[in-house]
Structures are given as C-alpha cells and as structure tokens.
Design brief:
By secondary structure, this protein is an alpha+beta fold. The protein folds into 2 domains: about 200 residues, Periplasmic binding protein-like II (D-Maltodextrin-Binding Protein, domain 2), CATH 3.40.190; about 240 residues, Periplasmic binding protein-like II (D-Maltodextrin-Binding Protein, domain 2, 3-Layer(aba) Sandwich), CATH 3.40.190.10. It is built from 21 helices and 14 strands. A 5-stranded mixed sheet has the order 2-1-3-11-4. A hairpin with a 3-residue loop joins strand 6 and strand 7. Helix 7 packs across helix 8. The longest helix is centred in the N-terminal third of the chain and has 26 residues. It is globular and about 105 Å long.
Amino acid sequence: MKKTNRKMILAFLFLIILVLSTAYFIFRVPKTPIELLETNPAINSQTVPIKMYIIGEEMEDFPLVLEELNKLLVQKINITLDVTFIHPSNAIREYRTLFKGGNDFDLISMSYHNDYRMLARSRTYMEITDEMLRKTAPKTFEEFSKSVLKETQVDGHTYMLPTAAKLYDQKVIVIRGDLRKKHNILKPKDLKTLESYLYTIRKHEENIMPYSVGESGFRLMEAVFLQPREYALIDNNLMARKISDLTSHIINLSQLKEFKDYLSRIAKWREDGIIPEDTAARKYISAEAFEEGESAIFIGNLYECNNLINKVRKKAPAFQPELIDLSPERKVSYMPASSVGIAVKNGSKYAAKSLMFIELLYTDREVFDLLNLGIEGVHYKKIGNVKYIALDAGKRYPPYNNLYWMMTDKYIREPYHDEEYTAVLENWKKNTQEGYHIYSRSDYEDILPKVSNQEDAYNLLIKYIYPISLGAYKDVEGILELYKTEMKELELKSSP
C-alpha cells in the first residue's frame, strides 16, 4: 500500500512539473526584443507591420514612395512600414500625447527640440543595449558604437539611434526677389538690412505679412542673432556654445545683455506688425505661407529652403525667390548627431525588426535613394554617382524633404546646376569648424535644471521661452526672471 502511494505521489509530481514546463514554454513572455525575434516563429516567417510616427510634412507623393519602399522592405527584412506624419505646426503640442492613452506604435523620430533628455529619463523610449544592436544592427554597432551613439546617451544609456550624416542645420532665409526689386531694396546681408526689407513690405504691401511665424521664434533667433555671433543653440533652455572656440564654456543666453536687447527688438517687431500680433498663440507656420504669397520670408535649413525655391520657381515664378545667408563668413558646424534620430517606443512588440529597419537607413542605398529622392524616373534622374536632377513630378516629392530619412551622408547626391544652393554649401564647407561637437554632454549636463516632473518643466518653456522668442512680452527682464524663479521652484520640489 505504501509503495502504491509513493508511486502515485511521484506520478502526481511528474504531472505537475510537466504542466508547469509546458505552460512556461507556451505562455512565457520573452524578456527582450531579441528573445522575441529569436523565439517567435511568426516574426521570422510572416511579414511584420512596423508603425512609425515622424515629424514633418507629408509630401503629396509619399504614398507612392511608401508603396515602393514596402516592396523593398518585404524582400530585405520581411516588414512593411506604416508612417504617420506629425506636422511641425502640431509637433510641440502633440508629440508627448502620443505616449499617453496606450497608443500602439514602434518607432518615432526625435530631436533635442522635442526634449529628448526629458522623455528618455521618463523611460518613454526603449533603452537600446549593445546586445540588441549586435544582433539586429551589427553594421551600425560596429561603425558607431564608439562615436555618435556616445553623443546621444542619457545618464550612460542609449535611447535612440542618431544620424551619422555630416549635415548642416544652419538657418538661411528665402525672400521675395520681386518685392525687393520693386521697392529698390538691397539684398539683405545682416539684421539691419533684413529689417529694412521687412519694414518696407509692411509699409507698401497691404496683403502680405512680412514674416508669418508662430509657436516658436527659434529659427529667427538662430538666423539673425546666434549664427552671426558664431553661437549654436544646444538646448531649449537658452543654452548655447561658441562654435569657433573649442575650449568655450556653455553660455546662458538669458544672462547676456545683447540677447535681452535682441528679444526687445523682436517685441518691437510684433508691435509694428512685422510679425503677427497673435504670433505666440499660433501654430508653426510652414513654407506654404511663403509659397502662397502670405509671407515675405521663410526661414529654414538649406535643404528646406532649396526645395521651397524650386517649388516656387515652378508654381509662382513671378516671386523670384532668393536665398539669403546673413553671415556667410562665420564659422559653422555640422549638425550634432543628437539633433536628429529615431527611437523605439518603450513596449514596442516589434523592437528588433524596428532596429533592423533603422540599420537599412544607415546602410542600404536603395532605401536611402527612395526615401530621400523619390522614385527614379518619376521624381528625379541620376547624373553619375553623386548628382541628380529633379523632374517635374519632384515638386510632389521634393529631394531631402525630411532629415529623419538622412541617417547617413554616404549616399547623398547633390543637385545638378543649382548655383545658389551650391555657393552656400561650398562656403560652409570652407568655414566648417572641424572637431566641434555641440553635444558634449559632460560639459553642460550639470548646469541644466534638475527637475523630476519633466511635464512641468516643459510647460514653463511653453509659458515663457517660446512666447518671448516671438516678442510676446515687452518686459524681457521680468519674464526671464520669472522663468528662472519658477524653474528653481521645480528644482527644489525635485530635491530628495
């Protein structure tokens, strides 16, 4: 009897172990995206849908480009990409809401203007480990693990893959050449002559806003104040650095008298109707305002402005658009790696496949050309290995219309016979400060506000910094002091 009971107990224990083991292998949740990739047959054998949010304007022909791209992606890594664009006019307000309410997506573009550090520290983005990169993006890991990836780390951890391209984010200006000639105005070469152009437009052109702008005046600040002084903005908290001096320390712009004078000058612009009275309450104003004849200038990076000029020359050639660089002889720097990149959402079901897609942006010429230039023979024509000509349909998918697709500069083609663009670019190459990195985090991380509630810190930017950059406050000293005081209060609340 005892022997029978013993056998029954052993059989029962064996059954329990068998059930638990089976349940473990059937129902266990993989610990990492890599484990998910390696153990889930569906992910390896079936086409995986990757959902991505990206900041930028959706070009008219993007659906055609995406259709061709997905044919390539199925062949190369067995995924399809679904892209939703966040229009720049909504980016500041909408970006953070994407991480609330259980939104299901895998990839999202990011930049320091979207407060990358704040979101990384709140674990909004997935941490990207060396192991993940070795297994899903080995070429990326091998080439960049000791360089650009280090520049983007937050508290020693990697939360996004940045562009490795040496791109320029210097701001240039497009003006109406027809209006300049009509009113016998000299081509602007500095802030004073730009003002002459803007005030003349205000006086004589009743239906045109000299500068239609909204949400933030940072582009204007860079073009007319920072760049002529060889400063580079490194943080939305008004921190900057001198490009031409590799030993320079971080500069708090709010403490500079000349910067306060500049903000007072912009407040006068608003009072005089050079920018809209309600500009601080407006959304971001895109290049369409210039294209439609509503604004007399547009400010953007070289790629944006070159595309705008080419588009206007075809749609409204009478505008005679002209490209202006207010300080052509200054030292310039490449855009820091941490300015533009792509992150994986924390909790993404297809994180491993998402990283494999990002690797293609770095390493695959077919994917690069398609996303950055469009469909060959439809939107552009290749000229040799390094040039291109935009075709008529190119206005529906302008070249390099989104910096987030430009994750490398190995495959960049330059426009053929575009004299203004080429002249500006060649001048910048001549004046590039080699070895300069805007993002040397060890230099300035300690002087930034230490706030645990990142949402409160962000709200202060919206309340004070963005509006004051658009001339919304006449009392510049008082507003900057209020911002400093309230930020200090948030820091005290964050202290242990």
